[in-house]
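RECORD TYPE: inverse folding
INPUT: structure tokens
STRUCTURE:
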């Protein structure tokens, strides 16, 4: 399926999301063999989020010009995360993390968190049992707070 990157100018740009009709989870596979699990949500257009685009085709000119790429999409039952360890910016609590990430596939690496009208980046350090497990209310979440540099904050357009 040929899909473009669909920009929402919201936190969904930083989540593994596919904008299609329906709901649930899908395995998204690129022609190069890379694959991820993404959540299906209804969006302003049909396509993939910025996060999915850059994870699967990092060398494409996303955002610089109109680009669409070939994605194989198949429904999948996601694995539930049992334990997640994260580094988060100082002041972001477990309530904030759960409210924003529950129901989304989690993988090791940077993660965007919306906090007080701007986006700050944390890091998922460890996910059990596997990458792209979905954060649920039963997931044990361990947060390590770290100081934030002003250069790491992205202010949202309102």
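DESIGNED SEQUENCE:
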């Amino acid at each position: 399926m040929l899909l473009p990157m669909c920009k929402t100018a919201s936190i969904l740009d930083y989540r593994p999301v596919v904008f299609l009709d329906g709901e649930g989870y899908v395995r998204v596979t690129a022609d190069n063999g890379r694959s991820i699990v993404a959540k299906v949500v209804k969006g302003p257009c049909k396509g993939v989020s910025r996060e999915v685009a850059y994870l699967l085709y990092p060398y494409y000119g996303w955002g610089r010009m109109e680009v669409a790429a070939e994605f194989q999409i198949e429904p999948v039952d996601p694995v539930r995360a049992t334990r997640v360890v994260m580094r988060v910016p100082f002041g972001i609590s477990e309530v904030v993390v759960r409210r924003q990430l529950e129901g989304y596939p989690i993988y090791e690496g940077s993660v965007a968190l919306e906090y007080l009208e701007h986006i700050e980046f944390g890091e998922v350090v460890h996910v059990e049992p596997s990458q792209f497990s979905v954060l649920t209310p039963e997931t044990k979440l361990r947060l390590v707070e770290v100081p934030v540099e002003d250069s790491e904050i992205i202010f949202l357009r309102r």
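NOTES: The first strand starts at residue 2 and ends at 4.
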